[in-house]
Amino acid sequence: MDLQAAMQPGVDSVGVIGSGTMGSGIAHVFARAGYSVVLCDVSADALERARKSIGANLSREVKKQKLTEAEAEAALARITCTTERTLLGKVRLAVEAATERFELKRKIFEELDALLPANAILASNTSSISITRLAAVTGRPERVIGMHFFNPVPVMTLVEIIRGLQTAPETYQAVESIARALGKTPVEVNDAPGFVSNRVLMPLINEAAFAVMEGVATAEAVDQVFQLGMAHPMGPLTLADFIGLDVCVDILRVLQEGYGDPKYRPCPLLVRMVDAGWLGRKSGRGFYRYPAEGAPPRAGR
Ligand code: 3HC
Q1: 198 annotated active-site
Q2: 127 shares its domain with 268
């Protein structure tokens, strides 16, 4: 069947599994492009927070005159937030955006495989886990693919599309055209730990953490070097706080295990900060402190 024709905005619905920062951003961009979205999570509280944050981000786009009030309202109305996975039974594409743990994703993929129509595509927004391994737990490995979005999803234009070893060319083409329908630019990457984005970004963040741990420079100085010297919009440690230090450590461990190379070992400072619950922006403290929503970060761990 023609998968490309099967996924038209306004005709078909999409499932998003996981309503954290990435899942809600993904639901936002699909709804904004005209797709109906079933946003699924095990936590009703997380879904409530997701609906609020999507609403706030759509309003931000209204203020910037990227959307009209009516378009924003219609987009929000296209999102069904639910803890009931069976509502995913009719979607033609599911994008999994759960926590970065293989065992959790495996369970979700097995469940989606059993629930979704046989011709539906199962995509993962994993930032580093093997698409080939996830595909292998399903009965439709040729319809499994990586669709890696970037935070903040409504703003960042890249979608890294990852082909697993088994991914069919039609699946790739369908997902590529869906990414374009979302207003994103797809970039094709083959399956390897961390793909391109995190294979290159995480060692930068890790090395920046080592520089701080070893007293080479403060976090602010490291960040200034990259902002002022390399025109990065955020220095690597501000970015690490933005991504979540726990997410960074999880990805580094996937790289270390996947390549068997100790160069990817997470910096002990990062690990200690995660152990302390200093996860970055989301917990109010990481390399910087985030005293209140919207307030500028204060220096100092
Ligand atoms: N939803 C909608 N719009 C948003 C938004 C959101 N969540 N967040 C920001 N925006 C919009 C703002 O309204 C603003 O719009 P404008 O250009 O029309 O004025 C624009 O984005 C810029 O935002 P701000 O003016 O508030 O703030 P900044 O200029 O400081 O930009 C930033 C914020 C876009 C986050 C910028 O600092 C940036 O690009 N940082 C780097 C982000 C990055 O590297 N992300 C990738 C992380 S890695 C990842 O996600 C992969 C994973 O696997 C780890």
Answers
A1: yes
A2: no
